[in-house]
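Task 17 of the worksheet. Students: predict the tertiary structure of the chain below and write it out as structure tokens. Keep your answer in the requested format; marks are given for formatting as well as content.
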Amino acid sequence: MTRWWKAKVMVLNSDARPVRTPRMPREARRKQLLEAAHQVFVAHGYHGASMDEIADVATVSKPVLYQHFPGKRELYLALLDAHLADFSDLLNDAILSTQDNQQRVLNTIATYYRYINRESQAYRLIFESDVLADELIAERIERFNSMLAESISRVVASDTDLDEAQALLVGRGLAGLAQVSARYWAGSGQQVSMDTAIDLISRLAWRGISQFPKEI
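Model answer:
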């Protein structure tokens, strides 16, 4: 057997196993593992995903994966936390982006729709997972919804004569309007353009909230 053929056989044989990536800083490795987990969870759901496949996609050994995450549930929760933090930051930026409340409503609803359109996989992991009944996951989703409603309610309370409880109820309603309408829009094949959908839902929201008496 020639040297060339021996080399070729060695390359072919080595291809049967994943090429492991070199050592990298802990935070960089954690980010890489979360990105690999995102791919696997999106493709197979929580129950269909395995730590073996996540390690293979990340091109690391299982011991390396377990050094960062003790199990699949912990890995999923870390991924969920990262997506929720990113989404929350975007929504808070929209709420604080202007002092014009009509524009604020538009910006917030636009952020919801654009996130779903741009980050559809992340959104499905957050709100359409096959493990939403899990207590820790449900708590995180509720915390996200609660924080958004509270951010909205603070603006409502400061600009109307509604009390704290009333403003929070309105905040929940507005947050729900954005979420439910955006999910329907995305799931129905986007038969209405995104810009038109944002305009319609924003006008609906503003038509309602603008009727509350202003605080003097």
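Marker's comment: Confidence is low (pLDDT under 50) at residues 1-16. The two ends are 92 Å apart (CA to CA).
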